[in-house]
Amino acid sequence: MSNAYDVIINGGSVAGCTAAILYAQRGARVALLERRSDPSAHKILCTHYIQASAYPVMAATGLAEQLEKAGAIANTAHYWTRWGWIRPPHDETSAHGYSVRRQTMDPLVRGLAAATEGVDLKLGHTVNGLLYEADRVVGVEGTAGGERFALRAPLVVGADGKDSTVAQLAGATAETSDNNRFSYFAYFRGLPQVSDNVARVYYLEPDNAYIMPNEDGVTVVAAVVSKDRLPEFKDDLEGAYLKFIRSLPEAPDFDSAERISKIIGTLNYPLVSRVPGGPGWALIGDAALTSDPLSAVGCAWAMQSAHWLVTETSAELTAPDRTPDAATALDAAVGRYRARHARETGPHHHLIADFATTRPFNEIEEFSFSAAARDPEMAAHFHTFGSRLMTVEEFLAPDVVARMEKVNGHGLSEETLRLLAGGEEQPSQHAAAQDESVGATR
Ligand SMILES: Cc1cc2nc3c(=O)[nH]c(=O)nc-3n(C[C@H](O)[C@H](O)[C@H](O)COP(=O)(O)OP(=O)(O)OC[C@H]3O[C@@H](n4cnc5c(N)ncnc54)[C@H](O)[C@@H]3O)c2cc1C
């Protein structure tokens, strides 16, 4: 039983490695546990468009520099809608994230974590238990190489993905909502790009698709389809997928490119939002919030939530003398993190979850999409919002709505204006998470 750590992080992927680096940069001693033994292991189910909102975190961990060296694409996108293309203007000074395959990114971020002084990366370690003192989590236990292990630290962080073991063991309150789309994707080499390395996102109502160029001339092509069409894909996956992507508006010539992967997919991907912390534990990344893959926010929020947690808790974890009040101070810090997580992700996730029902476009979507298709300034605004560099309130600020009205030649209905004036309704889990008090949740 070792007490050598200030924080134990379970899960050595995007969220966990980012948190480990940031904690260690602030002087914390970190145990980073990962059940897989291969340092090059990577997540398969991901189309890895990393939103620009994560850029500052990637710069802080050193990942941005590594990704540039690995040929990652500084990303931007064009969006197809029934009103035409939304083409946000961009140049080399525009805010961007990266498009880079997980097989490239995951080993890089894990390597950075392993090389950071203060991070003890323990591969092949599977956590399957939490240690408690009264109602407080004080460590983890698990197996490594057929042996049991136990580690103690003031804070245990679950960075262990959507089925988070830490969340389940800690009894984190969760809310789940349906995702009425399924997705299949494949990788192509040599796909002719219409615009220079610009991703394409298609809003086909209710289906969606995207074509995203990555490093090494490899493009990922995804069909994100309403579950009404599941029988078609179950009957003949290859045929249905190819028919779907060939029928995309202004489709590139897929048949002239080489498909270099199987068709990969997931049929059921419910959205899960958890209260991301309690006494002695916290959740980051998908463990805290698994949003809709369609919105391509998972990796960015994994890195950003790591950053929010480290910002709120590192001073408490690295205080030179742990006083009897240290646990109370840490609980307050975790409470601040919970509130910040809810503030930053809640309104966006609320909209994403609503869109995942496959309901028709609502009036605000029709109004904002059509304006963005007609006006470069609104196109830039739309893209900045999608890049999660803007809040929902900023997206629909009165001056913006006025410009959309001018561009569209008509306004919003009285009812929608009243709704906007009253603010967006928030789902209940966010109200719960915004409560900064960290009570026992077991
Ligand atoms: C089809 C699809 C497409 C997607 N496309 C995008 C996209 O374009 N852009 C985007 O940003 N996001 C996308 N995502 C989401 C993205 O993949 C996730 O949000 C992201 O990987 C979350 O990172 P994480 O570090 O929180 O969790 P994960 O990457 O899931 O990592 C969890 C880690 O914890 C380890 N672990 C789990 N349990 C234990 C245990 N008990 N003990 C020890 N280790 C454990 C796992 O081995 C793993 O390494 C997509 C998801 C899907 C399904």
Question: What amount of the residues lies in strands?
Answer: 15-25%
For the largest beta-sheet, the strand count, sense and barrel status come to: 8 strands, mixed
As residue ranges, the low-confidence spans are: 425-434
Name of the CATH architecture of the largest domain:
3-Layer(bba) Sandwich
Textual characterization of the structure:
- The structure is a single chain.
- With 442 residues, the chain is of the alpha+beta class.
- It has two domains: 7-176 and 270-352, FAD/NAD(P)-binding domain; 181-266, D-Amino Acid Oxidase, Chain A, domain 2, CATH 3.30.9.
- It has 15 helices and 23 strands.
- The strands form five sheets. Strands 5, 6, 14, 15, 16, 17, 18 and 19 form an eight-stranded mixed β-sheet that branches.
- The longest helix has 30 residues, at 326-355.
- It is globular.
- It binds flavin-adenine dinucleotide.
- Residues 10-16, 33-36, 43, 45-50, 126-127, 159-161, 165, 183, 266, 269, 285-287, 293, 296-300, 302 line the site of flavin-adenine dinucleotide.
- The site of flavin-adenine dinucleotide (FAD) has 37 residues, from helix 1, strand 2, strand 3, strand 9 and helix 8.
Main traits of this protein?
single chain; 442 residues; alpha+beta; FAD/NAD(P)-binding domain; D-Amino Acid Oxidase, Chain A, domain 2; 2 domains; 8-stranded mixed sheet; 6-stranded mixed sheet; 38% helix; binds flavin-adenine dinucleotide
A few lines on this structure:
With 442 residues, the chain is an alpha+beta fold.
